[in-house]
User: Fold this.
Amino acid sequence: MSKPFRHLTLALVAGLSFLDAGAAGAQVWRADSGQGTYHNPPLYADYPDPDIIRVGRDFYFASTTFVNAPGLTILHSRDLVNWDIASHVMPRLEGNPKYDLSDGGDYRHGVFAPSLRHHNGRFYIAVTPVGHNTRIYSASDIRGPWTMHELDREAFDPGLFIDTDGKAYVATSIGSDGTIRLLNLNANLTAVTGEQKIHYVKGAEGSKLIKRGDWYYLFNAIPRRLALTVSRAKSLMGPWETRDQIDDTTGGHQGALVDLPDGGWYGFVMRDAGAIGRVTNISPVFWRDDWPVWGTPDAPGRVPDTAAKPILGQPFVEPPSSDDFRSRSLGRQWQWNHNPDDSRWSLSERPGFLRLKPTTSADFWNARNTLLQKGQGPKSRAIAKLDVSGLAPGDACGLGTFGKFSNQLVVTRRPDGQGAVSARVVESTETGPTTTPRGEARAIPLRDLWLSVDMDFTADKAALAYSLDGRVWTQMPGDFPLAFAWRTGTFQGEQFGLFCYNPTGGTGRLDIDSFTLTKP
Assistant:
């Protein structure tokens, strides 16, 4: 274990002193320097499979959300650097009983690689939930409401494209093959009218199409090489020329370009970044012989760590993070693990608190009211102030990380009526989750309690602590790893999670006064 996690220094204790916070807590990473430059990534969190478009002065960013609900997050920006969450397209996930966490749930599946476009006053999103046909969502306002039409076939990682003549298409390819197909859509984008093979790039997926002048540009991710290619042609039917662009060592491996109001271009690209998950970088792009080149003429072929902002003069904006739960609805930063059981949570039963009632589950992995938000890099600390007086025998409630390793602070009621807090690590494996205690349970009174979880993505380690007064903290011993794994876990970066479950259900409750996200 690294030295910073062996014990709480005086500075750490001071840093954990709790002040009740309102809902507008700051993110721990600020990409905008305030001096006309930015640092990558704009959002230091797991926003994978990006698709970004511009509508007038506004940029919109759609991202993969797997089985988090509400699903399919849309972000908004005026400068590609300062982003906020605009909406979620899917209030609940539909079409599969596993979305309700039946039969082990649908981990690592769900909503993948959406493609976003705007045409004739409407937004369109193509997305293919794993195991389903492609869906086209449509709305006149980015905040919805959205209508949905399902196509008659499955287009992997669909790349929606609307040509200058108004005709609509979906480009699609699967990395295990590499054949790129083009689906013709009807005028209102509700049905496929034709299909043809247009190109082949070994290992290609994540296809995205744009047009610049007389040229069509087709971007493809090559996951086996963690690389991005671009192909160009004067016709959608080809012939296409293909060149390598960048890779994860130079910036990322899945993305495309978006134009600026002044006619310039910027690139957006996803990069694997360890336990935080997959982050999205943005990059200046210039043109050489009608080929896009990532970076600048002084440093071509790579995404810069720091660069001039694409658009100056816009104020600092960020998604919310901390929450005092005084609103009538959950903050837009929150998502549930799968669809929640809505009878087991409330913001109205005790105004000013989020109440979680234990769902019937033998373990954390199948609990239907785990409330999540993204972990943030490079280091972030979550502090939850709880009222645990309402816990009943068998309840297991608390705060932790959620991912390949779910490091948990679990609060329970003992047979003698007192409380206990313990630490455990739930690791997701190919044969199912395994739970390992970390140290002995600590006796506590069942009243107000503060729990703290640190995530250090520079070391891929977590640290857990609790306090009875919000000032003096007790560190939980043991090693608490963080990791990203696409074959096991959630296929997402580590998230913060508030949870409450009981093998027999029961009548207990956990009241959450506040959640505060800070720098450690």
